Amino acid sequence: MKRLFVCSFARRLFKPRTQYTTHFQESKESMEKSPIIAANNNFDSQTSKENGKRTGSYAATNIILNHEFSDGLNSWHPNCCDAFVVPASSEYHKGLTTEEGCCYAVVTNRKECWQGLEQDITSGVSAGSTYTVSACVGASGTFQGSAEVIATLKLVYQNSETSYLFIAKKSASKECWEILEGSFSLSTMPDQVIFYLEGPPSGADLLIKSVMITCPSSTACDRSGTSSVSTDDDNIIVNPQFDDGINSWSGRGCKVASHDSMADGKITPMSGKYFASATERTQTWNGIQQDITGRVKRKLAYEVTAVARIYGNNVTSADLRGTLYVKAADNRERYIGIASVQATDKDWVKLQGKFLINDSPSQVVVFLEGPPPGTDILLNNLVIKHASKAPPSSPPVIEDAAFGVNIVTNTSLNDGTNGWFPLGNCTMSVQTGSPHIMPPMARDSLGAHEPLSGRYILVTKRTQNWMGPAQMITDKVKLYLTYQVSAWVKIGQASGPQSVNVALGVDSQWVNGGQIEISDDRWHEIGGSFRIEKQAAKVMVYIQGPAAGVDLMVAGLQIFPVDRRARFRHLKRQTAKIRKRDVMLKFSGSDSGSLHGTFIRVRQLQNSFPFGSAISRTNMDNEDFNAFFVKNFNWAVFGNELKWYWTEAQQGNFNYKDADELLDFCTKNNIQVRGHCIFWEVVGTVQAWVQSLNKNDLMTAVQNRLTGLLTRYKGKFEHYDVNNEMMHGSFYQDRLGKEIRVNMFKTAHQLDLSPILFVNDYHVEDGSDTRSSPEKYIEHILDLQEHGAPVGGIGIQGHIDTPVGPIVCSALDKLGILGLPIWFTEVDVSSDNEYVRADDLEVMLREAYAHPSVEGIMLWGFWELFMSRPNAHLVNAEGDLNEAGKRYLSLKHEWLSHSHGHIDEQGQFSFSGFHGSYEVEVITVSKKITKKFVVDKGDGALVISIDL
Description:
The chain has 948 residues and is an alpha+beta fold. The chain has 5 domains: 138 residues, Jelly Rolls (Sandwich), CATH 2.60.120.260; 137 residues, Jelly Rolls; 142 residues, Galactose-binding domain-like (Jelly Rolls); 80 residues, Immunoglobulins (Immunoglobulin-like, Sandwich); 239 residues, TIM Barrel, CATH 3.20.20.80. The chain contains 14 helices and 45 strands. The strands form 9 sheets. It has an 8-stranded parallel barrel, surrounded by 5 helices. β38, α12 and β39 form a beta-alpha-beta unit.
């Protein structure tokens, strides 16, 4: 579920829920002479043995990623030309022999001698160290004799012109590989260092077999992110424990003082000799602060630790927050939430968090805020230092997973109620007459299965809604396994709809294993999932939910670990059916008669399926973020910048600057954009001035919002989420009547005919929320349509925990009957173990991509510290790709089609490929001919005529 972080500052009504964004593109003039910045410059999707891990020391290791092209062109970027990777077995260049199993890069369509292949190595080099370069290179083409291959560095400085540093050159021929060797050293550290190979004359192909850049020093080669900045453990806070009174500290709208004790000696420091107090607070945002301008560096992650408490005003507990005030060079202001903790007046508590700043702001202030006015904030110490890199996760080791084996004892009830016990003072008995077939979602996971017994547990004399049958499963649940939950449930006579829930008590925590609402006397399937990632002393499963006095019936409860890999094999076959198409290339032209046997290579340039991500303005100053986003996504949605609370936080004071800049960035990079959102129905997300309006003024404000937004951006957005989360909120409906929802859709459509208008909600796909079950979502959509709302698309947010394929697929199947395009609009999965997170992400992406009703997938961000959920990121704060990110790129690569072979005697070449744009290269003895084509959706084979 996505949440909005509400801030209580007088000068800002809302704090962004997320902090992700993008920007940066080199000017056209610089592109004509210099390499384009590598789109994947800081990310490694496959670590070779020689290259080691990206975390830790890089001494005497190769700082070039994917140095032998075993992972295609990942981490490399062609500079204003084309490139692809050729396996040794292809005999692409017959004059050059290559070991079996090896491959090499071919850089072609070079119009200038400086065009070649490049990689950003900024994070791998530091000033003052000497680096050695060794590259195995060749050349091919119509040139005579040999061609020079040159190794060059592009050095980018923010406040001065870009410069180029020559490293070495080597004459390369068509007959054999040559070794280019050289070295370089940097006296100062640029903002960017890009290594590239160039040199052969225009029209000639540059061939690259491997590249090594190493540093013989044992201390210099640290890929820590920003080598020019010290990243030691020094605290950037001055006078952190108030040994010098309140020097360097001040009050933010209040008074501050230092103490050695308070409250007649009852409050003393937790550590050190002193602490500080922020008193006479009249606003929640008042607190103690320190200006840290110039001490925080851009694109470095910092960890924050504070020891604090509250005092006075008869408040015993309050939310205490750490916040950054950041003022940009252009005077744009923003507030970044660092961390929060529930502080008490009884003892000191620790507040911990992380932050990262992408730009070089003119001012940065850290402060504590949050408790009610009149309550003092006490601070014992504050530490802000460069965050140490967390050790990489290890894949969970799970022995004897026993996929598909039910861990519930006596589920068939052959032995009465043995193994079961009543939770609470209720009565259990065994009856007959329940379904004999396995519930459908369980059957989809388990396959063929013996029939159920037909016996069920009847629970009567229930005096509390939590009472029901229970069983201890502590010793049967294994850590990190994803368990699917399935059962038949039924209720006795009741006065209205009743909720039934399969719940787990994991020590003192409640875990949702599935939920359903029942309003009749039939048997219903209940399905859900859970996973436990920390060892628990006690795990209990129980079925609960109906009101007191309502009988509960449960049959065939199954809890079993899911074999996701087996499901993936099915999804791959399904994906090929709906996302690929047979293609026949028919060649014609003056040379067509002699083309039989000619070698051709087909390469997919881009999959046309929409893979997108949320972005926000706060990341536009991080060129690494921008490069990764532009390379790996083709759609965008703005995290906050289009929402009403952002564009008009104060009545009549409009802010479209952020959305305009994001839209301009997307337009320049050919990124299509969803509009999220026109309205948000949940009351907690509606700004105070809107909530204060009477009915007539609110109706006027709603109309003005529609007119202002839809007119300003007419034709700019492909979709709009018209009224977000109507299944979970009713602010506008409660105040303006049910018809307002329909009118929002109608008016939006009248103002801009081009975008598809979506409903959008969460927990639709996971079986955990009765308010937004697929059945209720369908009823909601049909009701809107029946009253004239032009609903054109179904948004499923996808904020999901422990996804199970058949459960997700079941929801999609049900929604698919409406015939509307379904988009996953805000996908994120969360686990502190990167491998588990990667598995969850793969489940969601494969299920969505394999379903014929799904027409797009949007991630709700991908960069650490700029997402709404912790431990959901694909890229770590300082640019390192984690296992979830690698899995995403691996799937994107899997869903690209490449083929090669020879033209047959009919002048044809056939293959099966994913929908998208392609390039075919026809290689004859005398020349190469390159043509581009598109494979669109379609039922039959696609015949494409190519005139040579």
